[in-house]
Design brief:
This protein folds into 2 domains: 338 residues, Alpha-Beta Barrel (TIM Barrel), CATH 3.20.20.140; 45 residues. It is built from 17 helices and 10 strands. The strands form 3 sheets. The protein has a 5-stranded parallel beta sheet, sandwiched between helices. Strands 8-9-10 form a 3-stranded parallel beta sheet. The protein has a two-stranded parallel sheet with strand order 3-4. Helix 2 crosses helix 16 and helix 15 crosses helix 16.
């Protein structure tokens, strides 16, 4: 006990001295240096689907080749400014494709898009399927594009798991907004399988075999507990936050789930969406969403209609909601560290380009990661601990998953 208190006192004095010796400006300069010194991976960036719905074409640069643009949350110049060096490109498959079909075709088209962007700009981007490939790109100053499939809907037969690994997929989020043929969703109240389906259990085993990380974001609690016990490699939650701060939001992870994730060597990557971070924001946003829905119904509009988007902008001006902020994101990181006993089980999974206008103050796009590092430094996190959060934790799971593969 005496040794523990002595160590704690030493850490406190060190943290105090670090703050005392550096001004806020110097701490921010250090944060920016750290952001560029180490690999910075983000578990979930929805650029591909954002470009898809913009009718993306490689030959039509004004529609979205992500070098420099004011649209969305990601482009090359902003990523370089923020130190982002390995964003996982989300191959997002909406749940509607489970009813209409075409999930595999959409996945293939989005993968082709990501590869096309990298091929068009080989000096700026490179698709990777292992941590070692990302390490090599980082040394060259190239931004890596690992890919994760959000929703296992395209895995129509077991052989599709190996197929998509060969196409470059490094993780699969087992489902999305609805129960699918693999497992139940946190957003669905049907509880079709009461966790994983029989086929879903085979999918998890096959993902382990071919070297694809199991992503437990979006899945129901029962699905989580079954998947984490079944998987022979640690799992990730590529873009989730702590239910402790949002008790009504089952999409986030409970303290018990996070604790077990830590014991199993997994990583939760904190989502930046304000609805994932703050219960007050969630409650305000839900009320306003209902009001706006009534307005659209009265005018006979769908949310996707251009006129509806114009109405939405005006509605948001007239009904402002207080967003979460960068300090709130740090609170979630602190909570995971407290639950798991250290910084080895937490990372970053922003959901940039996926959570719309709800991003927190100070983290509005990929140029602003240094703001989060700055807050962590102010809270006493060491450079080494921050490097864990930036990439080492995810790299450990990714490397183990690839190493355990039996292809």
């Amino acid at each position: 006990m005496k040794l523990f208190l002595t160590s704690l006192l030493a850490f406190s004095v060190l943290a105090f001295n670090t703050k005392a010796q550096k001004t806020d400006e110097q701490l921010y300069q250090l944060a920016d240096k750290i952001a560029h010194k180490y690999i910075l991976t983000d578990g979930h960036v929805d650029l591909p689907y954002r470009l898809k719905i913009k009718n993306f074409r490689l030959e039509r640069q004004y529609l979205g080749i992500p070098i420099s643009t004011e649209e969305g949350d990601f482009d090359y110049e902003r990523a370089k400014k923020g130190g982002l060096s390995a964003p996982f490109m989300s191959i997002y498959i909406p749940s509607s494709y489970q009813q209409t079909g075409g999930a595999k075709e959409l996945a293939d088209s989005l993968i082709t898009m990501v590869k096309g962007i990298a091929a068009a700009h080989p000096d700026k981007f490179g698709v990777v399927t292992t941590p070692q490939q990302a390490d090599a790109n980082f040394k060259k100053g190239i931004i890596s594009f690992p890919m994760g499939m959000e929703n296992g809907a395209p895995l129509l037969k077991l052989s599709d798991v190996a197929y998509f690994r060969q196409r470059g997929i490094s993780y699969v989020t087992l489902t999305h907004g609805k129960d699918n043929h693999i497992c139940d969703s946190s957003y669905d109240s049907t509880f079709t399988h009461k966790g994983l389906s029989a086929y879903g259990k085979d999918v998890v085993k096959e993902m382990n075999r071919v070297g694809i990380m199991v992503d437990v974001s979006h899945i129901s609690d029962d699905s989580f507990y079954q998947a984490i016990e079944l998987s022979t490699s640690p799992v990730i939650a590529s873009h989730s936050s702590c239910r402790y701060f949002t008790p009504t939001f089952k999409r986030n992870m409970s303290d018990d789930m996070i604790t077990l994730l830590g014991k199993k060597g997994g990583v939760i990557q904190i989502n930046f969406g304000s609805s994932f971070l703050d219960e007050n924001y969630r409650q305000q946003a839900e009320v306003l969403q209902g009001k706006f829905g009534k307005i659209l119904k009265e005018k006979g509009l769908k949310f996707s209609d251009p006129a509806a988007q114009d109405l939405l902008k005006q509605f948001q001006k007239e009904n402002p909601v207080l967003f979460a902020d960068v300090e709130t994101v740090a609170n979630h990181i602190d909570h995971v560290v407290k639950l798991t006993g250290g910084t080895k089980n937490v990372g970053i999974g922003s959901d940039f380009d996926g959570v719309g206008d709800s991003l927190p103050t100070g983290l509005k796009d990929v140029s602003q990661y240094p703001n989060l590092i700055y807050v962590l430094l102010k809270r006493g996190y060491t450079e080494d601990a921050i490097a864990d959060i930036m990439y080492r934790n995810v790299w450990r799971v990714w490397q183990k998953t690839v190493a355990n593969a039996k292809m």
